[in-house]
Request: fold
Amino acid sequence: MTVDPAFAHVALDVPLPETFDYRIPDDWRPEVGDWVVVPWGTSRRVGLVAGLASGSEVPAERLKPLEPPLAGMPRMPRHWLDFVAFGARYYHAGLGELALPSVPKLLRAAPSARSRGPATGRARGRFDAGTPPRAVDAVDAVDGVRAVRADRSGGSASAAGPAALVPSAEQAAALAAIGAVDGHAVFLLHGITGSGKTEVYFRWLEHRLAAGPTTQALVLVPEIALTPRLADRIRERFPAMPLAILHSDMPDAERAAHWLAAAEGRARIVLGTRLSVLAPLPGLVAIVVDEEHDASFKQLEGARYSARDLAIALAARRGLPIVLGSATPSLETWHAVRRGRYRIATLEHRAGGATLPTVHRVPLRGATLKHGLTEPAIGAITATIARGEQALVFLNRRGYAPVLACGACGWLSRCDQCDAYRVLHRVGGPVRAAKAAAAGSVGAAARPDADDAPPVDLHAGGPRARYRLVCHHCGAEQRVPRTCPECGNVDLAGLGRGTQRLEEGLQELFPGARIGRLDRDVARRRGAAERMLDAAHAGEVDLLVGTQMLAKGHDFRRLTLVVVVDADAGLFAADFRAPERLFATLMQVAGRAGRHHAASRVLIQTRYPDHPVYDALAAHDYRRFAEQQLAEREQARLPPFVHQALLTAQARTHDAAEGFLAQARVALLERRTEPPIAAQVLEALTVCDPVPMPLAQMRGEARAQMLVESASRAALHAALGPWLAALRAQRTPVRWQIVVDPHEI
Ligand code: ADP
Ligand code: ZN
Ligand code: ZN
Reply:
């Protein structure tokens, strides 16, 4: 005997772990996976029906009824609900908190009297109109691919397109290995930079998608800036496959259109950043995670998750193969390969006969610098430009100068909200070289001083209005003060160098060169990063300057020189992942050079030329580096040899934040939870002391953290469930979060 459900458990986009119960009205009945409108306080919200029940713990008279369902939204399939429920459990987050932010806002806006019918209808038309005209009906899509490709090799000018590449022996072997698997398996495609991983992905996707007319593939990339070019390559290669793109920097209407096309199976290939792993894809048959090591796959706000790890879980739950690609795999992935949990396919050579760049260390100690560059670096850039090739100058620090200082009293531009300095930023375009020189001692006499750029003088009456102070943590912005806030001195100076200032220096050193800069400041203007990259690819830029945004994944044809201005910043950071990050970043940026035949070089300016990280880099030896790092981590009992969860707390004072954590620690150790944590589970845990976070104050709040770790993932999760429930039941003004598998500690 079944009882008709009277209540719906509804997941909402709120930072709470639970779903909320609503009464089912008499005249209609929702199904699990339906989108519904519910009253929420004085407003209305759109939520997802996560379950149905005949009873509720809340007295019926206190429950409000569901409003009529949201028109036009597809019902979320069971496999997706199971997957996001798994994700919510694993990350100890709310189902709504995890899954709903990935659904475009436009589609989950509660309808108002003013809305012009369901947003879904308009969104559907938009995607279909936006697909290239060559797109054929889904039913013959697979044949369509063949037809168009046959067409191309039939001698047209486009025969030289990517579809015409003949796989190398290595690529063919990798494909054979990966393609042989039909069920769930995780493959690491470990291919050096420029080895042609993309070609392997494409051929594998082609093979997987050919299995049927409703198949879908998901391709994850770490950066929004990587999507346009890869999208072009996909469209060119799969002209018959409608492509949906999902990332957070799209206009609302477009984002809605693409999400719906993905969710309804109309898009055959879905390309996106981390949030796209949460898109419901009914026909999914293959997943690719490109640059799998990249920290940008970690979501750092709201529900904290790793899109790479969720992608692996998704593949496992749906019985699918997944390919993780990288030249510098994360140590977690490498460890899983060593243990036989993941399989590996390797590309040891660059595609198309290109060779790896030679890596040279240029000592900074005792060197004479101009605008942060040593003589060998300047000479190499000059020669490269003269040959009509491109050079990339890498500095992983955006802004003009990292700090503004008073030479008289030592005042520094601290942020009053954060435990950090406000960074000097130039507003608008670069100051022409002559003006920059006039503004201070910039470029005047080069000093034999590796440590710093000459200060930029912002004396009263100088170019002060061209600059602002910006905090990179809270975003606070202010004008440059007229005089020192402490002593009234009028001569304030920017110390050190960021990409904006480097760009100006390069202009002065190479007046005829066309310079293009890329960093997060440039990318903030919609389309600006794309324009700059297009110009670089079209050969309209001689000198590229930028942060790691430039390092990731790009395939510049004429780039033959990479100069790393100051590599050492990452060497001695406290975070145990710092060497891994530094190595990956340098390997990536070095990998931009010489991808197309020409001999190429990488110059690393460093104060520590003998450091083992640079040895491994010069030898292009990821394995050596990974093995050495893993040995150290195993010794020190660090991930991936232990599993971690980080409890973080923010409060008005450090005492409050650390006090909350200390109390949470006692609750755990004394097993004051419901149900009580088993003694042997507790024994398997290490519960560290609360400490201030590396950025101990942010946005005016004190921040502290406490690490819980265990060699047993099961034990860690068995403890986290009841423990967090107990913490949630407390009333406290302290805001806290749990981060499972934290990336930075
Ligand atoms: P990565 O492994 O760094 O992702 P890409 O996939 O970007 O490398 O490939 C690097 C370059 O090599 C691209 O320009 C690509 O077109 C070219 N390439 C890839 N495979 C082949 C091949 N089999 N023959 C010739 N060129 C190739
Ligand atoms: Zn002062
Ligand atoms: Zn701040």
Q: What stands out?
A: Residues 415, 417-418, 420, 471, 473-474, 476 surround zinc ion (ligand 3) (CB under 6 Å). Confidence is low (pLDDT under 50) at residues 131-161, 433-451. The two ends are 53 Å apart (CA to CA). Residues 74 and 554 are 36 Å apart (CA to CA).
